[in-house]
Amino acid sequence: MYMDDLMIGICDDEPWIRKKIREICEHIQEVEKIKVSLAEFANGDEVLSFGRKIDLLILDIEMPGSNGFVVRELLQVRKEDAMIIYVTDHDEWMGDSFGINVYGFVPKRLLECKLECILKSALQRLSRPSVELADGIDSSTVVYVKAETPYCRIYFRDRHDEMLRVGIDSLAEKLLSVDFIRVHRSYLVNLKWMEQVTEQGVAAFGSVVPVSRRLKSQVKKAFMDYARKYAGFC
């Protein structure tokens, strides 16, 4: 596996924690032969003023100034897609820590035995292939596709949508090889953004997409297989 120019941010107000996390990242980089850059931040405000896109952010929750929850919210407002792994001394905050772009949660007392596993899984997910659709659209930014013959409407993570003059079968040929699944004759969904499969359909990034009865068991299996591999738990 090889990733070029992947930026990992390490944000914690305790220098010894940053040092320990850096050592774990450097070990994974060496073992997995992954090319990454590492940046350290003593507080959330330094993250928010950083001049480069962060792909993966290992983030403390309790810090002076902007805490980990505020950093997550402001990154979302700015439409910055850093994947977040929270680290904290407070296990009771685990329920509040999950949300959009949050990949996992590691208690600081378990850094050495938990962080490496979650990091490897996160890096695998970040390295999943994508394809370029018409007009330079990167498939990784697409939540789902709806057929509106002879067009397709493309729904994105930032909540906007665009129409492309292309049939859904043509798009399926490109997208089914990069983590998309056909859930209905008129819909393709990106497994990366699926949240659950219910009786009403597939929940994906705040939307509910219909699932055909014929495909429901296949969709559930694909979702569970993807979640087991890339869910961010170890």
Order of helical and strand elements? EHEHEHEHEHEEEHEEEEEH
Helix-and-strand structural type: alpha/beta
> Radius of gyration, rounded?
19 Å
Distance between the termini: 21 Å
Number of helical runs? 7
Overall outline: elongated
Question: What is the topology, as strand order, of the major beta sheet?
Answer: 2-1-3-4-5
Please give the oligomerization state of what you see.
Answer: single chain
Strand percentage: 25-35%
In short:
This protein has seven helices and 13 strands. With 234 residues, it is of the alpha/beta class. A five-stranded parallel beta sheet has the order 2-1-3-4-5.
Topology:
Blueprint: E1 6-11, H1 15-32, E2 36-41, H2 44-48, E3 56-60, H3 68-77, E4 83-88, H4 94-97, E5 102-107, H5 111-126, E6 142-148, E7 151-156, E8 161-164, H6 168-175, E9 180-184, E10 187-190, E11 194-197, E12 202-204, E13 207-209, H7 216-230
Parallel strand pairs: 1-2, 1-3, 3-4, 4-5
Antiparallel strand pairs: 6-7, 6-10, 7-8, 9-10, 11-12, 12-13
Give an overview in words.
The mean pLDDT is 87. The longest helix is centred in the N-terminal third of the chain and has 18 residues, at 15-32. Strands 2-1-3-4-5 form a 5-stranded parallel β-sheet. A 5-stranded antiparallel β-sheet has the order 8-7-6-10-9. The protein has a 3-stranded antiparallel β-sheet with strand order 11-12-13, covered by helices on one side. The chain has helices spanning 15-32, 44-48, 68-77, 94-97, 111-126, 168-175, 216-230, and strands at 6-11, 36-41, 56-60, 83-88, 102-107, 142-148, 151-156, 161-164, 180-184, 187-190, 194-197, 202-204, 207-209. A hairpin with a 2-residue loop joins strand 12 and strand 13. The two termini are 21 Å apart. 32% of the residues lie in helices and 28% in strands. Helix 1 packs across helix 5. It is built from 7 helices and 13 strands. It is an alpha/beta fold and 234 residues long.
